[in-house]
Design a protein that fits this description.
alpha+beta, Nuclear Transport Factor 2, Chain: A, Glutaredoxin, 2 domains, 4-stranded antiparallel beta sheet, 11 strands, disordered N terminus, periplasm
Length: 242
């Protein structure tokens, strides 16, 4: 705890010193700051926006969905987190979470393998690659969940074999069974995999939202959890959505 407080104090002191240094240039508009910073970092790194942060003289910079900070003179770029000491709120983390939200309506059920347990009242979507070890671990853990609907969107991003297995699973007479057989029971999918699939559409959605790893879970509020998330964390998230 002491180390954390010391780090926070040092970060705060640094931010304050930058803000003081930037004081004379504070009159610059956010657009001017963006233009000046873009010149300095080069055209290859595209700045999406520049806006005021909670700290006077410090501005939030968005590059893609990544959050950085700069001073009003565009002299410094700060990589780190802003934490409100009074509440303990991690402002940067919250901002990042908001930026990473996925519009639930963009996830079309017709493009997913749908699994329903119990009354299916709780919903979650998962982006999965059939050759992903962490996806297999997650799928085994998910067997513990009840009253849930799971939409699995296959995105073959690991290898050419991932694409072949995804096609074989999707084109099976029973895609849900073929998926479970492979991911949980280790039964290799068979068949030609020569039907029309939504794999390209799923990959495009993943790319649009910056999903670069599997598994990635998405909840109805648009929040995402990367990796083989613990069941206890999934249950906690479901509880927060009630």
């Amino acid at each position: 705890m002491l180390d954390k407080l010391c780090k926070l104090a040092l970060s705060y002191a640094f931010l304050c010193s930058v803000a003081l240094l930037a004081g004379p240039a504070h009159a610059q508009s956010e657009q001017q700051i963006r233009t000046e910073l873009q010149k300095k970092i080069g055209a290859n790194t595209k700045i999406k926006s520049v806006s005021a942060s909670p700290i006077p003289g410090i501005f939030e910079v968005l590059v893609g969905n990544d959050v950085f900070y700069t001073d009003a003179a565009s002299k410094y770029v700060i990589q780190g987190e802003i934490i409100e000491l009074a509440s303990g709120k991690n402002i940067t983390e919250q901002r990042q979470a908001d930026l990473n939200r996925i519009k639930w309506s963009d996830l079309l059920p017709a493009n997913a393998i749908k699994m329903v347990r119990g009354n299916g009242s709780r919903q979650v979507a998962i982006f999965s690659d059939p050759n992903c070890g962490y996806c297999k671990r997650l799928d085994k853990s998910l067997q513990q969940l009840d009253n849930v609907t799971i939409y699995t969107y296959l995105i073959p991003i690991l290898s050419a074999d991932s694409a072949q297995k995804s096609k074989q699973i999707w084109c099976a007479a029973d895609p849900q069974k073929a998926y479970v057989d492979w991911m949980i029971n280790g039964i290799t999918p068979t068949g030609k995999g020569d039907c029309a699939t939504p794999l390209d559409k799923n990959t495009a959605v993943a790319k649009n939202y910056g999903i670069t790893g599997t598994p990635t879970l998405v909840f109805v509020d648009g929040s995402r959890f990367p990796g083989a998330v613990q069941i206890s964390d999934i249950e906690k998230k479901f509880s927060s959505l009630k």
